[in-house]
Amino acid sequence: MNLNKNIFLMVMLLFSSITISLGQEIKGIVYDLETSKKLPDVHIKNLRTNQEVKTDMQGNFTIPGQLNDYLSLMVQGYDRDTAFIYQEGVNRIYLVNDKSTITIDEVVVSRITDSRLTREIERAINNSKAVETSSTKGGLRISPSRLFGKEAKQARSSIEILELEREQRNVNRVFTDDLILSLIPMEKQELLLFKDGYRPSYEFIKQASKEDLTAYIMDSYAKFKQNKGESLKQ
């Protein structure tokens, strides 16, 4: 009797895990980067599963998937793009009109996808180069206009903004709510304060192992609680 009961429980647990897995989905809204207009009929494909959907008239979509999936996005009049899903909730994805030129600032950069971010870094680096090839004089030469020109200065400024955004995203993907809460239960407000005050550096994240990150979170939380307690005493 007990054997049958155990088998039944194992089957139910297996069925539950399959149901949860099948029930995973990615939700999002697709916008125009410049106007924030919601884009209908955007063709979206999960590159892991090859499942496809289109956005509705309000730019909304739901597609089977999970964290760390890549979505391909394509619609007429816009650059084809790829979005990496690294956080839960409704993902806001911004596409760039194929006839527009992005003016780099912190707000714009925070909205573009990882693949677009990489392309903009490459473009900015190329525009900042002072060395050019001469087809008539042969070899390489220094171009003062490219070195001191307005476009080169803007490109160098853009590189700083773009690379900082890429570093912040790499930290966000590792220093997640789920990871922190799996180690230390805390309320939402406390979590926000902790993440804001004890965010690890990009240099640390680059070389840290999973064990290093776990130790960092535990040590940082101990300091967080100590500082919080001292503030209450004052």
Secondary structure blueprint with pairings:
Elements: H1 2-22, E1 25-32, E2 43-46, E3 52-54, E4 60-64, E5 70-74, E6 81-84, E7 90-95, H2 106-111, H3 114-128, E8 131-133, E9 140-142, H4 144-148, H5 150-174, H6 177-183, H7 188-197, H8 202-207, H9 210-233
Parallel strand pairs: 1-7
Antiparallel strand pairs: 1-4, 2-3, 2-5, 5-6, 8-9
What's a concise summary of this model?
It is built from 9 helices and 9 strands. It is an alpha+beta fold and 234 residues long.
The quaternary organization reads as single chain
CATH top-level class of the largest domain: Mainly Beta
Helix content: 40-55%
CATH third-level topology of the largest domain:
Immunoglobulin-like
DSSP strand content: 15-25%
First-to-last CA distance: 63 Å
Strand order of the largest sheet: 3-2-5-6
Question: How would you portray this structure in words?
Answer:
By secondary structure, the chain is of the alpha+beta class. It folds into three domains: 25-99, Carboxypeptidase-like, regulatory domain (Immunoglobulin-like, Sandwich), CATH 2.60.40.1120; 101-174, no CATH class; 175-233, no CATH class. It is built from nine helices and nine strands. The longest helix has 25 residues, at 150-174. The protein starts with a helix and ends with a helix. This is TonB-linked outer membrane protein, SusC/RagA family. InterPro entries: CarboxyPept-like_regulatory.
Properties at a glance:
3 domains; 234 residues; 3-stranded mixed β-sheet; Immunoglobulin-like; 4-stranded antiparallel β-sheet; 9 helices; single chain; globular; alpha+beta
